[in-house]
Each structure stands twice: as C-alpha cells, then as structure tokens.
Amino acid sequence: KLAGCTLFITGASRGIGKAIALKAAKDGANIVIAAKTAEPHPTLPGTIYTAAAEIEAAGGKALPCVVNVREEQQIINAVEKAVKTFGGIDILVNNASAISLTGTLETETKKVNLMMDVNVRGTYLTSKTCLPHLRKSRNPHILNLSPPMNMNPMWFKNHCAYTISKYGMSMCVLGMAEEFRGEVAVNALWPKTAIHTAAMDMLGGAGIEKQCRKTDILADAAYCILTKPKSFTGNFIIDEVLLREEGVKDFDVYAIVPGHPLMPDFFLD
C-alpha cells in the first residue's frame, strides 16, 4: 500500500519513529530519516545510518539526513534533498520530541526552550516546509505523535511545560487539518499505554519495560492511518482504539511481558 511513497520521519533513528519507518519499508516505501544522531550516542542505541541499513534490509529505500528540528535550515535542506532524491514527499511523521517531567520551579529555562523548540516549533516548521510538496501528492498525510487535548488540570500540574509543548503539537493538528481539509490529511496518534523506548528506560528506571508495550503497536496504528484516504483528517487517535476498530483482538502480542499489568500513558483519564 505504501510502495513508492516517500515518508519524511523526524526522530526516526530509534524508537517509535524507526518502528513506523520499518513498517512502511516492508511495503517498499522511501524513508527520509530526519534525525540528529549521526555519531553513535554514549547511552542511546542507533544512528541515522544504522536505521538506514535496517530500512533497506526491510525492503525500503532510505535517505539518512542530519536534522535537528530546532534548526530551520536543516529541515529545509533535508526536504530539498528528499524531493531531489525521491521526486516528492507523500507523508510527514512528526515524531521527534523532547521530554522533562518536571514542575514549574524545577524546569530550567534551557529545558523549557528545548521542549517548545522541538515539540511545537519543530513540528510547525517541518509541517510548513513539507506542505507545498505534500499538496502535490495523491494521498498526502501529516501524522503528529501527540495526545488528545485533555484539559483536566491534573495533566498540567506536575509537568506544565511538557504538557504545553505536547498540546502545541496537537493544536497544529487541529489548525492544519481544517486549513488543508480536502488537500492534506492531518491527524494525531497517541498510545493508550506506556511504550518501551530508550526514553522510557531513562524516565521509568529499571523494570519499567514489564509495564510497557512494544513500539510495534504504534507502527501498526500509524500504518492504518497513513493508508486511509486524505478525507480521514482532524482525528486524535488512540492506538488500541483504532486497532480494535480494525479487527485486532490479540493485544498480548504487543506486550513486552504478556499478561503483566500495563501502565497507562499520559493525558488519558
């Protein structure tokens, strides 16, 4: 279904971004890996080049690009390179994200700037840069990895800056879905439970993975969304809810430890 489509995925060198890339690669898609890690990181697995090798092995074509979404020129350069290499862009996945689960007085200004720059501004600028190319595609999609906007104060009180930044990504969905209705589908995807990534290990500490699902569940849900017509737009989708609607019954396959109680994700009451 995604054979020959070009996906521009931010933060695709590891975790959820890479899982979505590998799922699309199995169809023979072209993947632009727009991520920061060109040299191996001391504590985090993977680089844009190791991800590219995995994507090619899965059946896709890969274009690794060094992109820090805080730097507009790096976004522009990568988009130009993608269009030159693959002839266009069909899908944008805004996956790159920064997190600090800290209270207002504990959140350093540089951390506030990082979350606002990566999550809100990075998502906005990458969308803005890709949109002229997306509009030329037959079935263009933007997918933001961001939550439904839940205005329950409990989601703000413990990590106000992080919540503002993630809801900023969701507001991009709200606005752009309406602005480009009929031209480009714009949706958000969020997990029902915690997902096991390097970031989760860092935040949750030892043993946290038992309470998590694999990144595969988000890759499968993203695939469902990105293969729908562009009239499917403006939705805030929860992975498990969508997959149940699509007929999936066995969710144990997604668990790191089948049968173990799962930790619900943020922003879902």
UniProtKB/TrEMBL annotation:
Pfam family, one: adh_short
Gene Ontology terms, MF aspect: oxidoreductase activity
Superkingdom of this protein's organism: Eukaryota
Signal peptide boundaries: none
Keywords: Mitochondrion, NADP, Oxidoreductase, Peroxisome
Subcellular location: Mitochondrion; Peroxisome
Main location as per UniProt: mitochondrion
GO CC entries: mitochondrion; peroxisome
Family matches, as InterPro entries: HSDL2 (IPR051935), NAD(P)-bd_dom_sf (IPR036291), SDR_fam (IPR002347)
PANTHER family listed in its UniProt record: HYDROXYSTEROID DEHYDROGENASE-LIKE PROTEIN 2
Family of this protein: Belongs to the short-chain dehydrogenases/reductases (SDR) family.
Protein name per the record: Hydroxysteroid dehydrogenase-like protein 2
Organism classification: Eukaryota, Metazoa, Chordata, Craniata, Vertebrata
